[in-house]
Design a protein that fits this description.
Layout: H1 2-58, E1 66-70, H2 77-84, H3 97-104, E2 110-118, E3 122-129, E4 132-138, E5 140-145, E6 150-153, E7 164-166, H4 170-175, H5 177-201, E8 206-212, E9 215-220, E10 225-229, H6 233-249, E11 252-258, E12 269-275, H7 276-279
Parallel strand pairs: 1-3, 4-7, 7-8, 10-11
Antiparallel strand pairs: 2-3, 4-5, 5-6, 8-9, 9-10, 11-12
Helix pairs in contact: 2-3, 5-6
Length: about 280
């Protein structure tokens, strides 16, 4: 009898286990199926992505056919393509845009560059160049851009006819580049103001901007010195234009024009060199 009871108990236990398994499947089955489906979908996406990338990197459809440039003035298309080692037939997907930009920035005239892939087979390059505004002696002759940055050495092929900024040497620039740049910027601001007056009154071409501490002296192409001193450059340059007109009307030429009287800012002192006729070699005998 004990044997029969054990047998019945085992049957009951088996039935209970089967029922428990069925209950677990009913309660957790949908969740398990979702996990399995998600895993399968992820695997398919990864596989599809790998295959798509392989196709994109090998497809002739994405082989570089043309490169367009904008903003070029001094830098040339050939030079930039050579620097970047950019040639036809390269795959657009394989191009490292950041690396291309960094290599093109090595060109001395290039200030900023933006490379954009134009699918399926073109690349555009937008270049911003340094704008040369003056020259500076920093051991060697350098070109200053519009921000007072000495961005390249002067070379024979540059063909630049720009005013020279003096009073900032190489040692000073190396010791404190930011302060030197600020002095260059101050010199450029005065040069721009002089050019603005030049457009209106056609004075002599500016040859040099001499920075002596905080004082500024302009040197014209004729050698005439205009000592502006410190501050109020635009007002002083307007006064300079009036002085030059008055001298011209009297047939006189000035060697030095002083506009740097700190005690009496409105005063002007002039050192006369010679009459204009004598300067031109046409004086009467």
């Amino acid at each position: 009898m004990a044997f029969g009871r054990n047998k019945n108990r085992r049957r009951q236990d088996a039935a209970q286990r089967n029922e428990a398994v069925k209950g677990a499947v009913r309660s957790k089955g949908p969740g398990v199926m979702k996990v399995l489906a998600l895993t399968l979908a992820t695997g398919l996406l990864v596989w599809g992505g790998v295959e798509l990338r392989r196709w994109a990197l090998q497809s002739p459809r994405f082989e570089l056919a043309a490169v367009s440039f904008s903003g070029l003035q001094r830098a040339s298309r050939v030079e930039l393509l050579r620097l970047a080692a950019l040639t036809k037939g390269q795959n657009l997907w394989a191009l490292d845009v950041g690396a291309l930009e960094r290599t093109m920035l090595q060109h001395p005239w290039v200030k900023k560059v933006e490379v954009t892939r134009r699918f399926p087979n073109r690349v555009s390059v937008a270049v911003t160049e340094h704008v040369p505004e003056a020259l500076a002696v920093l051991g060697e002759l350098y070109v200053l851009d519009e921000e007072g940055e000495p961005f390249k050495r002067v070379t024979p092929g540059d063909g630049l006819d720009l005013p020279l900024v003096t009073g900032v040497d190489r040692e000073g620039y190396v010791a404190d580049p930011e302060q030197a740049r600020q002095r260059f910027q101050a010199a450029l601001e005065v040069a721009r103001a002089y050019t603005k007056e030049a457009v209106a009154g056609k004075p002599e071409r500016l040859s040099e901007v001499r920075m002596e501490g905080r004082d500024v002296t302009l040197v014209a192409a004729s050698g005439q010195e205009v000592r502006l001193g410190e501050g109020d450059s635009e007002v002083k340059l307007q006064r300079l234009a009036r002085v030059r007109r008055e001298l011209g009307a009297r047939g006189l030429a000035a060697e030095i024009i002083h506009l740097d009287n700190r005690a009496r800012p409105g005063w002007v002192a002039v050192k006369i060199s010679s009459p204009v006729s004598e300067r031109n070699g046409s004086a009467k005998q």
